[in-house]
Every structure is written in structure tokens, then in C-alpha cells.
Amino acid sequence: MGQTIFEPWNDPSAKPLIQFKNVTKKFGDFVAIDNQTFDIYAQEFFALLGPSGCGKTTMMRMLAGFETPTEGTILLGGEDIAPIPPNKRAVNMMFQSYALFPHLSVWENIAFGLKRDSMPKPDIEARVAEMLKLTRLEQFAKRKPHQISGGQRQRVALARSLAKAPKLLLLDEPLGALDAKLRQDTQFELMDIQEKTGTTFVIVTHDQEEAMTVASRVAVMDDGRIIQVDTPARIYESPNSVYVADFIGDVTILSGTATPRDDGYDIAFAEGQPPLRSKSDTRLDKGQACHLAIRPEKVSITAEKPVDAANAMQGKILDIAYLGNLSTYHVQLPNGQIIKAQTANTRRLSRRSFTWEDDVWLSWTDTAGVLLAG
Amino acid sequence: MRRLALIIIPYAWLLALFLVPFIIVLKISLSDTALSIPPYTPTLDFSAGWVGIKDFFGNLDFENFEFLTTDDLYWKAYLSSLKIAFVATVLTLLVGYPIAYGMANAPDHWRPTLMMLIILPFWTSFLIRVYSWMGILSNEGYLNQLLLSLGVISEPLTILNTNTAVYIGIVYTYLPFMILPIYSALERLDASLLEAAEDLGCSRFTAFWLVTIPLSKSGIIAGCFLVFIPTLGEFVIPSLLGGSKTLMIGKVLWEEFFNNRDWPVASAVAVILLLILIVPIILFQRNEQKQREAEG
Amino acid sequence: MRRLSWFNTTALTLGFAFLYLPMVILIIYSFNESKLVTVWAGFSTKWYGELIQNEAFLNAAWVTLRVAVISSTIATVLGTMAALVLVRAGRFSGRTLFSGMIYAPLVMPEVITGLSLLLLFIGIGLDRGVFTIILAHTTFSMCYVSVVVSSRLVSFDKSLEEAALDLGCSPISAFRLVTLPIIAPAVISGWLLAFTLSLDDLVIASFTSGPSSTTLPIKIWSAVRLGVSPEINALSTLMIAIVAVGVITASLITKRASLKQQADERAAVHA
């Protein structure tokens, strides 16, 4: 194809747009951000993902200029932004509540920031028209915010924050107020707009699916720290910790002790069960505590014992969650451990092969699980 | 810088025109009456320097307060104000609660209109509202005319210039203050609570007594304080509707100041009135605080 | 539960009769021919005619109007500032005293406020007149304004102001372009409240006015102390009429606005 993949974080010569350098933020005694260092590159769609109170919103508000770091520096294009007030930053924000000015029309809301820059009137009109077109709001220009629907308001907020063509756009839970169906459509729209405008987006969200869908890279946060920054695929397939593995998607975590053998490890995890077999680059000592994280879709479920599977064990079906396209089985091993296995429902329900209380065999390959130090 | 200016301007205004006047009242209440302008001594004389200031403080005393205790006019006036304010508050509650209850149970589309009708008198002149009762309650007034013509009474009743007229005046003018907080408490009350109480075996009345009243308690308390506190220092109502026997401290203060020109005693009367008011004001604040916490 | 039982109907009927009958009687008897106010002697508007020719009343009305407009305007500015301080300024030394000074005048007996201000004016040798009444009225009504405005500011979504800053406003222009227009209804009702309080005030004005600055309430007061008079009935009727028209218009406007908003919101959902 010849087209280069967009991966500036793997290019040592690429200059990051934003650099957090040992940034700490305290509110009184409470440490909201704990000594964090990371980079965001131009044209990235960067997601800060974590549960509420993990510090992701604080991170964003420091970028917008509503909070200043207690320690450390934030560089935007190589320049320390601490002394620049929010109204002078080339950074715009889309607020969680949208913060649309209720006394101004859609048009005036979008033009608001442009007027502050004393842009000539024809230019403002052209720019607002462009934004209205981008967000498909042309026919609502004269309406007030309370006269349009939730999804339209969301687009006005986006248009308003994009109008000034910021170097960096911050989006605080931009889709939080929308219902599930609309949210999905809007996610793709956001990606589309991000691509068209080439603006760097930083999105804050607690919805892992949303982060995985839209972002080029995801930073998973907990308790004021970034646990892992990586592409959605790597976050899912190669989590660096039990926390990340557990936070993203569905997973079974098996805990045990490792013994190195050949190019992998044997993991003793339960009395009366053969050790688990896992190939991994993770460096573990003999007898070290470890966890094996296995995604349900990587576990096969069969009636007969599979031949030459790296890992196979028998259990009883405890629960079946029917999700339409997929079914997740909760299978209990004799020692009480529950393992989740997922199958695609390619057949009609009546032809389904397993039901409650069935004894079944679970199996997975030696590369299916992710081995993590305990 | 801007924040500082924002704070300083209203702050300075209130200091100069609220706190300083107050300190002056306190100071004059500790001075002696004199036949001079201003009619009290000592006056602070800064030109005499430190000695002047020392002299000034040396001459302040509690004589006026002692005087208030020796002349029984004053403590009787305080007691009578407290009594009138208390009785009037209870009466206002008895009149106001059913109205608030009726409003809260009125159909939804009526309520804004009812609300406006309660607030409307609040915007009309207080003086006029009190005055309107003079024509009704006087010996030849409309009430006596009505009762005489109905044959209920044979002699006109003397109501104007008695405490009864004062009570009527207070209930009339302060009624919105009682109704509004009770109404807002009752309006929030979830009707299913009453249905639940009846479902669990309460009669209509016991459900009202055990559910509605306790849940509107904060509104009742707020309403009572909103009536009691201003009534205590009321001047217009006792002067227009009350008689010579109606003793209320606001009226005494006014007369002490304008008729007797006794500024130090008037100031002492004011200081004591404030001290009396502090208790209900603190209780009121606490009730508001509790309510805010319960809501937030 | 939301039905009118006989009890509720009775309570509301009697309650509103009690509230409105005295004023209705006052209005009816303002059109009484007779000088004896309690005896009906036929319809006449002659008391209104006499009222209009009574220069003392007209002068007092003019003084009152000037005082009310000026003091409520200053009070609105100061009260809005005070509300911003209360809600936004965070902690500063003297904050407790400040909020105390805002809330105290609301519960302070008028006789004390009036007395203390009078003593201040005498103490600093300020001649009593229109100016001192304006000072006094501004002081107590700014507290009412700040209570009204601060209760609106508390529920004000702060991210609106942040959005304005984010889009390039300075803090002052963010206040002027975003905060002020949104809290304007509260500021306006604060002004109206201050205006009415000033129009209405007898006690504080009596303490702080001079011989040349009699306000309408003082004038009415000295007239009604002598008993009921048909001229005062006529004056009262005019004042009640003005207020009633004002309040009813205002409530109709807000009702229409809220109906329109509801309709808009419904339209938005279906759009």
C-alpha cells in the first residue's frame, strides 16, 4: 500500500504536541494527579479512561487552564503553558454539560469565540457557516439551545469549540448525556470530524467501549496515575496489569505460582488440576505469584475432551448469559473457580448444544492468556 | 485585584452604613442624657488626644440600662411585645396552615395563580394594608355596621385601639410569610406517602397528623420565625390599630426618641431588643441550615 | 390526592376573602361621595380629583419616586456585587462578618435600623434629606437584592463561565457577556424588590428624612393617624392598582415565556 501507519509514538524523531513532565496536582491533602509523565502527539485522538475520581477530569482541566499543576510542567508545542490563562490558550474544550449559552442562538454560540478574537465579520460568517455544515446544523442556526434536541446540542458544543481551530480540543465526557443508540452514531461522527479537521483530540470518558472505539491511544487511569498508555488493541490484548485487564472488557483472572519451562511457564493454580501452560515474554522467577488473564472468547467449550490442547479442564455450566450474537458461559471447576467462555451463536437457539448443569471441557492455547506478575 | 475591588466596595458600604451606626447606638446607650446638641455626653474628643479617649471611656456607664430596669414601663413593654408576637404567631399559623394546605392540594393548573394571589399583597404597601383595617374595625366601621344590621349585636364592639385589632393586623400583614414556607414544604410532599399511611391502617386524620405535619415541620418552623421576629419590633401596627394600652417595644423606642428626645434611653432600648432577638434569629438560622442539609 | 375537598375549598375561599376583602372595601369606599368614610352616599370620583390637586401629596410622591429609583439602582449594583462575593469569592478574612452584615438587616427591626442610621448621620454632621434616605434605603435593600441574586448564582452552571473563558473572554467580559445576561431575571427581580421596599418604607424614612424631604408613606402616616380619610382611600386605590397591574403583567409574561419554552422543548424532541 505504501501508506504509513499513523504511529508517531513509535517514532523517536516525532515531536510531541503535549508533554506532561512529572505533573502532580493536589487539592489540599488530596493527591488528584500523582507525578505523571506522558506525551500526546499532534493529530492524535487520545482518550483518558478511568472510573470517576481517578483524576482524568483534573488532567483535562489543567490542559484547559482551569487548574494549575502543583508540581511539574505541561508543555504545549514545547512551551510551558502554566502562566497562560485559559482565554489565551490555543486549546478549546467541549464541556460535559455542553455549557451552551442559553441566551444566545446556535449561530451566536458558535460565533462567540471568533468574536472574541475580533475576527472581521465576513470571516466569522464564513467560519460559522463552515462549522454548521460540518456538524449538519445549518437549519438550526437561529434556534436557541433549549429549542433543539440533546444530540443537536452536543453538535453545537462541538462546533463551538472547533470554530477557533484550536491546536488541541478537549472533550469532557462528550457523549455522556446521549442515549446508547445515538452515542454509537456520534462516536463515528466524532472520529470523522477529527480526521477531517486534523485537530488533536483529548477525550475524557469512563466508558471503555467509547474509548476503544474512537481513540488512537488510550490512557487507563486509576487513583491519579496512568496505568497504561497504548493503542486500543494492545490495551485489550496485552494489558500490563490485572487492573487494566479487568477494567477493559470481560476477563477471567486465574492466580497461581509460576515455574519456568521451555519458552514459557507452568502455572500451578489449584489442587487436583494440571498446571496451566502459558508462553510469555514476562520475566518471572520460579515460585513467583502470578495471574493469568484469559478473555472469554479465547476459551473453547466442548462436550468431549479436546485432543492436544495446551490447556484443558472439565467443569460444570453454572450460568449462561445469552447476548444474542454471543453466549457467555460461566463454568465452575471442581475447586470452585469460575472461568468464562464465550461462543458465537451461529446456530438458532433450539440447536444450542449446552445447557445448565452440563459437564463440559474448556480449553485454550498456550498463547491465549496474558501472564502478569502478581 | 479585581476580586479585591469586588469585595471591598460592598464591604465598605455595609461597614460604614450598617456596622458603624450600630456601634454608635451601643456607645450612645452607654452615655448620659444632656441638654445639648447632640443631646448626650460624653462625646469623643480626638483633639484632646489620649486623655480625651480615656475620659470618653471613663464616662461610659450602664446607667441607662439600670434605668430600664427601674421603670417598669420598659420591661412590661418587652414582655408585652413577646406575648403579642407569640400569640400573633400562633394565630397566623392557625390561619395560614389550612390555606397553605388547600393550595398544595389544589389542581396543578391553579397553583401558579394561587401563588400569585398570595404574593400580590406582599407587593402592596404595608401601611395601606394596615390602614385598610381601620375602617373595618372602628366603632362606626363596616364590621360593626354589618353585625348591627344582622342583629348579632346591639351595641357596637370596640375593636380598634385594642390588642385584638393588633392581632388581626399582624395576622393579616404577615400571613404570606407563614403560608409560603409551609406551602413549599407541603408541595414537595409525595402524595404516595399518605396513601402508604392509609394502606397501613391510618385514618385520613391520623395520616395527616403522623405524616403531613411532621414532614411540613421545617416549613412551619420557618414560617413561625418569619412572623415572630419582625413582629417583635413592629411599630406601624400597634401605633395604628393598637390603643394607648398596647405596649410594644418598637412603639416605645419611637416615642422615646421622637417625643422625649431621650437618645441614650432609646439606644439602650434598641440594644436590649436586639439581644432578645438574637435567640430566635439563631434558632431560625439553625432550622434553615438543617433544612438545607436535608435537601442537599 | 390533588383534588379540592370541601375542607380545602373552604380554607382557600375564607383565606383569600380575608386577604382581599379589606382592600376591596377600601377600593369601593374610595368612590364614596360622602366625607364620612363609613357611610355610603353614592358614587363619586371627587376624592381622586382632590388628590390630584393636593400639592403636598404630589411632592411627596415625587420625592418617594426619586428615592426609590436611585436607591434601588445603587442597591442592585451593590447587592449583585455582594452576591458574587458570597457565592464566588471563596474564603477571605472577614467573610463571616460580611455574610452577617448581609443577612442581619433582613431580620433587624426597622426602628433599630432607622435609629442607628440617624445617629450616624447626626454624628458625622450630614444634613438629613433625600440624600440620607437614599443612603438608608440602599443599605437595607442591597441585602435583599444580594439574597435574591445569590440564590440564582448558586444554581448557575459554572462551566458556562469557563466555556466563555475557554473561548477567549477575559473574566470581566465573561461576566458581562454570559453570567449577567443569564442571571438578569434575578437581578431585575432584585431591583423590583428594592424599589418596592423603598416605596413602602415608613419607619426608616421617618428617621432619616429631613423637613424638606417628606416621602409618601410619611405623608400617608401623618394623615391616617388622625383616622380614615377618603383621600387616603383614593390614594391607596391608585397604589394598589399600579401594583396589581404590574404584578399581573409580570406573571403573565413569565407564564407565556414558560409556555413558549415548553412548546419549544416539545418541538425540539420531535425535530
TrEMBL record, chain A:
| SMART domains, alphabetized | AAA (SM00382)
One Gene Ontology MF term = ATP hydrolysis activity
Return the EC number.
Answer: 7.6.2.11
What Gene Ontology cellular-component terms does the record carry? ATP-binding cassette (ABC) transporter complex
Q: Does the keyword Nucleotide-binding apply?
A: yes
For this UniProt record, the keywords arranged alphabetically read as follows: ATP-binding, Cell inner membrane, Cell membrane, Hydrolase, Membrane, Nucleotide-binding, Translocase, Transport
Q: Some GO term, biological process aspect, for this entry: which one?
A: putrescine transport
Q: What class of enzyme is it?
A: translocase
Q: Which Gene3D superfamilies match?
A: 2.40.50.100, P-loop containing nucleotide triphosphate hydrolases
PROSITE patterns reported in the protein's UniProt record: ABC_TRANSPORTER_1, ABC_TRANSPORTER_2
Residue ranges constituting the ABC transporter domain according to the UniProt record? 18-248
List the SUPFAM superfamilies hit by this protein, alphabetically: MOP-like, P-loop containing nucleoside triphosphate hydrolases
Catalysis performed (reactions): ATP + H2O + polyamine-[polyamine-binding protein]Side 1 = ADP + phosphate + polyamineSide 2 + [polyamine-binding protein]Side 1
Give the record's family classification: Belongs to the ABC transporter superfamily. Spermidine/putrescine importer (TC 3.A.1.11.1) family.
Q: How does it assemble?
A: The complex is composed of two ATP-binding proteins (PotA), two transmembrane proteins (PotB and PotC) and a solute-binding protein (PotD).
Function noted in UniProt: Part of the ABC transporter complex PotABCD involved in spermidine/putrescine import. Responsible for energy coupling to the transport system.
Protein name stated in the entry: Spermidine/putrescine import ATP-binding protein PotA
- Gene of this entry: potA_2
UniProtKB/TrEMBL annotation, chain B:
Extract the SUPFAM superfamilies matched here: MetI-like
UniProt keyword list: Cell membrane, Membrane, Transmembrane, Transmembrane helix, Transport
Q: Name one GO biological process term.
A: transmembrane transport
| ABC transmembrane type-1 domain mapped to chain residues | 78-284
Give its localization. Cell membrane
What membrane topology does the UniProt entry give?
Multi-pass membrane protein
Q: Which GO terms describe its cellular component?
A: plasma membrane
Q: Where are the transmembrane segments?
A: 6-26, 84-104, 110-130, 166-186, 207-229, 263-284
Q: Where is this protein chiefly located? A: membrane
Provide the family line. Belongs to the binding-protein-dependent transport system permease family. CysTW subfamily.
| Entry protein name | Putrescine transport system permease protein PotH
Please give the organism: Roseovarius litorisediminis
From TrEMBL, chain C:
Origin superkingdom: Bacteria
Task: State the family it belongs to.
Answer: Belongs to the binding-protein-dependent transport system permease family. CysTW subfamily.
Q: How does it sit in the membrane?
A: Multi-pass membrane protein
Q: Where in the cell is it found?
A: Cell membrane
PANTHER family documented for this protein: PUTRESCINE TRANSPORT SYSTEM PERMEASE PROTEIN POTI
Keywords assigned by UniProt, alphabetized: Cell membrane, Membrane, Transmembrane, Transmembrane helix, Transport
A GO biological-process term: transmembrane transport
Species annotation: Roseovarius litorisediminis
Parts of the chain that traverse the membrane: 12-31, 67-89, 101-124, 130-154, 174-194, 232-253
Can you cite an annotated GO cellular component? Answer: plasma membrane
* This protein's record includes keyword RNA-binding: no
Domain (ABC transmembrane type-1): give its ranges. 61-253
Q: What is its main location?
A: membrane
Q: What is this protein called?
A: Inner membrane ABC transporter permease protein YdcV
Q: Which SUPFAM superfamilies match?
A: MetI-like (SSF161098)
User: What InterPro entries does its record include?
Assistant: Bact_Polyamine_Transport, MetI-like, MetI-like_sf
Q: Does the keyword Transmembrane apply?
A: yes
